[in-house]
Q: What sequence folds into this?
């Protein structure tokens, strides 16, 4: 862990993009899948996915995260070929249509990440925390920002009675090892993500959010992906259509505790949450939401 006051990345530059962490970055989710837990099938068609991504950017998303395999509990893995067939046409269309917005590829497969980056994706989002050395090598070679997420098990089995003696301590020791290994391999632009819902009960997720400062203390930007997840419904006793308000509150608290990227399905709610939370956090109005992400 970095000592207090030591290096705190204020921005990550890559190619023509600048991700500034002076304000909260909003990552809009585009699932090009038939089976994602909240929007499965809606954007399975590449044209529908590209149109949706453009709408998210119009609504204020700073980053677009494209995924071609659902990681919902119980999901079966997708083949590389199928995943490529889903995401590549969308990335190709978006690099032309929204050239000022960095595109993140949500995959744990190095071949998919490599192909996506060859098409212009500028960020890696790996739910397995770059555990495959080929993914780490790709992140190092490309210099792209890389999301290192904690997951216990795999999507297929991760929700079968996940158990920890101290979930926050376990996630922190995972990050400690990952940071050491990845920085040795030359990965510089690390983003940490506690992996809300990945091998965790509702209480584990709440503990991670409650003690998020301990993850922020590593000194790397922290991303939280909690949009519409089941722990919100469990906390509120609501069903999936009623998880948005709980998500707004949870994201706002995560920002107050130091998260600098929120991953959301609804970019209108996400940008309003980020703006309001940033205004309070910084103690001033008019935080520039159009500030640096693009060229
Ligand atoms: N959550 C999901 C997928 N990718 N990536 C990061 N870094 N953090 C997350 O919390 C995260 C993620 C699951 O949400 P979603 O993409 O909406 O669903 P599905 O995996 O079913 O496509």
A:
């Amino acid at each position: 862990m970095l000592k207090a006051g030591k290096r705190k990345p204020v921005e990550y530059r890559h190619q023509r993009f600048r991700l500034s962490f002076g304000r909260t970055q909003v990552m809009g989710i585009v699932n090009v899948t038939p089976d994602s837990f909240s929007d499965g099938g809606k954007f399975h068609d590449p044209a529908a996915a590209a149109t949706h991504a453009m709408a998210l950017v119009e609504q204020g998303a700073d980053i677009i995260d494209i995924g071609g395999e659902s990681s919902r509990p119980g999901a079966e893995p997708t083949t590389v070929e199928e995943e490529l067939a889903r995401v590549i046409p969308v990335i190709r269309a978006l690099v032309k249509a929204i050239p000022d917005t960095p595109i993140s590829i949500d995959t744990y497969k190095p071949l998919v990440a490599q192909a996506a980056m060859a098409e212009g994706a500028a960020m890696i989002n790996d739910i397995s925390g770059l555990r495959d050395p080929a993914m780490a090598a790709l992140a190092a070679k490309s210099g792209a920002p890389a999301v290192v997420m904690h997951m216990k098990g795999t999507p297929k089995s991760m929700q079968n009675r996940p158990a920890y003696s101290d979930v926050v301590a376990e996630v922190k020791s995972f990050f400690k090892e990952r940071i050491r290994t990845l920085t040795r391999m030359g990965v510089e632009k690390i983003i940490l993500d506690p992996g809300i819902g990945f091998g965790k009960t509702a209480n584990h997720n709440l503990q991670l959010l409650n003690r998020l400062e301990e993850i922020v203390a590593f000194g790397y930007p922290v991303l939280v992906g909690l949009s519409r997840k089941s722990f919100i419904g469990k906390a509120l006793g609501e069903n999936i259509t009623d998880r948005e308000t709980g998500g707004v509150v949870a994201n706002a608290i995560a920002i107050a505790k130091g998260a600098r990227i929120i991953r959301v399905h609804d970019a209108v709610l996400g940008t309003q949450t980020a703006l309001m939370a940033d205004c309070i956090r910084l103690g001033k109005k008019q935080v520039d939401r159009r500030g640096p992400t693009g060229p």
Summary: Residues 17-282 form a domain with the TIM Barrel fold (CATH 3.20.20.20). The chain has one domain: 17-282. Residues 1-5 have pLDDT under 50 and may be disordered. The pocket of 6-hydroxymethylpterin-diphosphate is lined by residues 29, 31, 33, 36-38, 67, 70-72, 106, 125, 127, 147, 149, 193, 195-196, 223, 225, 263 (CB under 6 Å).
